[in-house]
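Response to reviewer comment R2.3. The reviewers asked that we include at least one raw input/output pair. We reproduce the pair for G-protein coupled receptors family 3 profile domain-containing protein here without editing.
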Amino acid sequence: MIFAIDEITKSSAILPNITLGFQAYDSCMVIQQSLEGALHAVTGRGMVVPNYQCFLGVPLSAIIGHSTSTHSILLAQVLGLLWYPQISNFATSPFLSDKQKFPSFFRTVPSDAFQSRGVAQLLLHFGWMWVGLVGVDNDYGLQGIQLVRQEIIKAGACVAFTENLISRQSDRNVPHIAKVIKKSTAMVVVVFSRDLDFAMIVAEMMRQNVTQRVFVASEAWSTSTIFSTKSLAQFVTGTIGLALHRGTIMGFKEFLNKIHPSLPWGGKWVKILWEKTFTCALLDQSNITTVPSTSVKYCTGNESLENIQNSFTDISNLRVTYSAYMAVHVVAKALEDLRTCYNIKNLYVNKICSNIFNFRPFEHKNLKRRDSVGCLKCSWDHWPDPQKSMCLPKTIEYLSYEDPLGATLAGITIVSSLVPNIILRLFVLHRNSPLVKANNYRLSCLLLLSLLLCFFCSLIFIGPPQRETCLLRQSAFGMVFTLCVSCILAKTIMVVFAFMATKPGSKLRIWTSPWVSFLIIFICSLLQLTLCIFWLSLAPPFPKLSTGTESRIISFECNEGSAIAFWAMLGYLSLLAFISFTVAFLSRGLPDSFNEAQYITFSMLAFLSVWISFIPAYFSAQGKYTVAMEIFAILSSSWALLICMFFPKCFIILFRPDMNSREYLFRKGKPLSN
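Raw output as returned:
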């Protein structure tokens, strides 16, 4: 691990200009010390305070270890609560693959679930259908033997015996296991154990003269050098087993040869190694020696590991060591990904992507039942309560009359509908006045009626969506507004025809007849009606429940069925309005006593402005606010037409009767029309 850290620090390819550090803890294979070391690493020096960091130094990025499954499971349970990364280089228990229990645990070795299948396939390959099973009494041995047993039975083989090595009672348990192996007719024994534990069984087999057995070894002892001694080798000769992947670490041999007690990072481990390798004692305050003081041989410091051949300097069989080396590189690669990740970098304060002080609270769609390991996902129409103990139904939202926004829009609609009623009554009372006649009395009444319907069609959008209302909403809106804009287009064209027909010998006098204006209205409305019929026939709107972006609310809305048809309808309306605006703008200089062309120009300009503004507002709003936006656009455009087209005329009728006279019309050269 130290070699890997030093290698990464010196490399410019990963974490350049960054120096990695480490803290090492020795568990002495005592589970309490493993837990204490992990908590020290997480919380800091001194008293262990879970979930707090008690020192100001750079925090550790991850914990690498423990090498045994039992210790790793305990550490993973604690570190998982803190979501603290843990990478083991030798813990193979299949339990550790459960990400619900151990969310922050990783490893650089395969799970025993794969090893168990491999052992079972190995037995079947050699035709060994009658086998014995021995496992050490920890998570590694118990789970490994259980998985092998399941795979063997599944394949049709039989288990002669299953024994657990109780390491705490080895003096009584080991002879029993050796006796069971001796008496059993099974010549093949599968052993899931550490090398030291199984060595005790082999030694007992020597005493009881148990021979002619074939052992199938798990990866924990299959490559151990303990059994290479002459006394033990004769009892394990013929052993076959699985082993971890063996790797090569470039430069590791040179690194080992340069190890010396004077190095600052060696600690007591290097001193112990030095004293045992060279059979001498180091002279310092932390001197460790088991040699009697009367026969002490002191180390000179000139010793070298370069020519020493032992298990420490042998790099020909790097398996567990290689896994530890890879674990360090995994941590370094993760840190490099964090350093170079664009999204992570832009989470920092004052960057353009995010403001970390204005995050919305994270929303969870799962609930956790009491005494349950995992979480259950609520159905799409439910949401967990704040305690995450039960699923509550989501609120169904739509623009209703009880809603303040819906009630306000409905009230505005009703009040607004009174205005065209009043103006229509005023026009009927003054239908014989020169002003009303000059502005085409019939078309004006039809326009006022269409504006009245425009206000009323807003009410269809309020209330719970139903199949009938969804079909009627947009089609009614489209048809009524087409009628309204068609009336204005007909008035615009009639203004132009009326002026041109006054020229001597003009043949356009026939086009000033009332039937021409109604023909224009009929043709324009017929095209919109055809579009609506196709829309309702091929892709009709329908009511739909949608969760949208607000997780706690279900929007009850009308799906338009075909977005193309909806925008085609609005596009046709805009086209009619644009034609009216263009014709009125070009004819604004014609003699006109009541400025009809100018009023049409302003009314169409206001109409187009409202619906162009509606497009971004429609896409930005959601749920009931989308409906409210469309109602607001309908009311705004209707009021724009009403104000521009009729308020000036009402003002003349009520407050300027001198302008509502035949003499005034003749003075301005305005022809009358019936």
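The chain has 21 helices and 15 strands. The two ends are 101 Å apart (CA to CA). Further pairs are available on request from the corresponding author.
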